[in-house]
């Protein structure tokens, strides 16, 4: 992955520390999945990153019911943005894929925006 936010930016955005799938300190975080979770207004957001493959899993549920479940690959850039009262995660994908930028808004409300080209 070419661009990835600093850990403090993700902690700020998700308001939590990451959960590591493997506590082996001899393995770089680049090679093991880590997850951020956030609960707000009966919504639960779970975002898992695996940087070495450019993988991103996004699960959003409302009152225990899944409303978004995405397993994405080929991410090349992930950014944390704060603009005009909006806080979001922005994910870019390899140009040779049909996937366009994914926007995960966490404030002022939970919202996902994403499209694909054909």
List the main descriptive attributes of the protein structure presented here.
118 residues; mainly beta; 4-stranded antiparallel β-sheet; 1 helix; 9 strands; globular
Describe the protein's architecture and organization.
The chain is mostly beta strands and 118 residues long. It contains 1 helix and 9 strands, in the order αβββββββββ. The chain has a 5-stranded antiparallel beta sheet, covered by helices on one side. It is globular, with a radius of gyration of 14 Å.
Topology:
Elements: H1 7-14, E1 19-20, E2 34-40, E3 43-50, E4 55-62, E5 65-72, E6 75-83, E7 86-93, E8 102-107, E9 111-113
Antiparallel strand pairs: 1-2, 2-3, 3-4, 4-5, 6-7, 7-8, 8-9
**End-to-end separation:** 24 Å
How would you classify the helix and strand content by structural class? mainly beta
Helix content, binned percent: under 10%
Secondary-structure element order, N to C: HEEEEEEEEE
pLDDT averaged residue by residue: 91
* Largest beta-sheet characterization: 5 strands, antiparallel
Q: What is the domain total for the residues?
A: 1
Query: Treating each run of at least 4 consecutive H or I residues as one helix, how many helices?
Result: 1
Quantity of strands, as a count = 9
């Amino acid at each position: 992955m070419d661009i990835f936010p600093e850990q403090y930016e993700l902690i700020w955005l998700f308001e939590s520390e990451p959960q590591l799938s493997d506590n082996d300190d001899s393995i770089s975080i680049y090679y093991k999945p880590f997850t951020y979770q956030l609960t707000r207004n009966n919504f639960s957001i779970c975002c898992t990153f695996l940087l070495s493959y450019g993988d991103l899993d996004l699960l959003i549920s409302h009152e225990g019911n899944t409303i978004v479940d995405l397993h994405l690959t080929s991410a090349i850039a992930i950014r944390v943005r704060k603009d005009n009262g909006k806080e979001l995660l922005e994910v870019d994908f390899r140009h040779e894929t049909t996937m366009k930028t994914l926007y995960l808004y966490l404030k002022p409300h939970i919202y996902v925006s994403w499209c694909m080209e054909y």
